[in-house]
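One record is given unchanged without comment:
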Amino acid sequence: MSSIKYYVLSINNAKPFKIFLLLTICYLILNCIFVAQNTWAASYKLVKIIEFIFLGMIVIKLKPRLRTVLFFLSIGVIYSSLIAILEFIFQKSIGGILWWLGERTFYAGTPGIALTSIRGRLFLRPYTIFPHPNVFGGYLSIILPLIFYLLATFKNKKKDFLFLFFFVSFVFGLWGLILSFSKAAWTVAVFGFTLVILVKSREKKILRLIKIFYKKNLFLIAFYLLFLFSLVFPLILAKTGVVGQTSVLERASLIQGAMKSISSYPLFGLGLNNSIIQQWLFLPTISELYVFQPVHNIFLLIWSELGLVGFLIFVTFLSIALIKSQKQTMVTIAIVSLMVLGFFDHYLFTLQQGQLLFTLLVSLGMYKRYNEKQI
């Protein structure tokens, strides 16, 4: 991994990275043809991956300022959070023109709808324009720490319109994050806020520590330890029965199924976008039909579908993104937060909104465009 990292990043031009992407696409094509049981499902996913590669290349070509990107993302934070507040108050979808933005028709009694219990009473978890409250919460958990960081950079806070706009977005977003009732999103948000506070209060020491992490490859060690923890912890909770929530049992069941598939097909996996198709072969026999969904861990999901080869390619790609973004603290925080979020859910790899967020933020770190005073 170290040799790959320094080969790709020791050269300032983009040719080595383009070769890396080309080899990755070649591997995905071979995986679709020779490994995937359902070639059509694999081919569709391959087209989507290539689509996001081109999107990332466009972002790198345009070199947008992070403040501009956050401005438009904050607009989404405001109106999606406002919808979430209204949905929670009325305990149903708002309807009307919002259907065209992605909101679907539901109410608290809709079968299979996401609910939360407050003092023994069930409440609807707002979906807004997202496919699930967890995706909504995950979006906010990544964006809010960046807005929080940006707010700290304003000098003339009272008279600056942008400061007021980002402050309003931050307040609405916090309410939206709370009402999502996504524990994973809450955890990632706290993690992101903690990183921002540490960086702003001990900036020189933190930046020096980051350089040490890169030089010593300590971030890879930390990643693998967190990856292992994300697999073992849900299994321990489910086995001990300390937490009896259905979601924990489902997550543990999906992790067990993914690990069984990896043990059966360790090198090349089940095939791109084929994990659910063959999931019934590996899940425990007590699993219900509704459990058939991607494992809630993008790294384990990629390993089960693309094998160890695909897993190492993905980790290498994230390593490149992290190292290239090391002089852009906000982007580094975003990428690290995305990785942590990936330990809890699958939508950064499986759903359109998660894929767009992942592609955009990682692409922002792939080019040298400004220093921290020019965000």
Remarks:
- The two ends are 31 Å apart (CA to CA).
- Confidence is low (pLDDT under 50) at residues 1-12, 370-374.
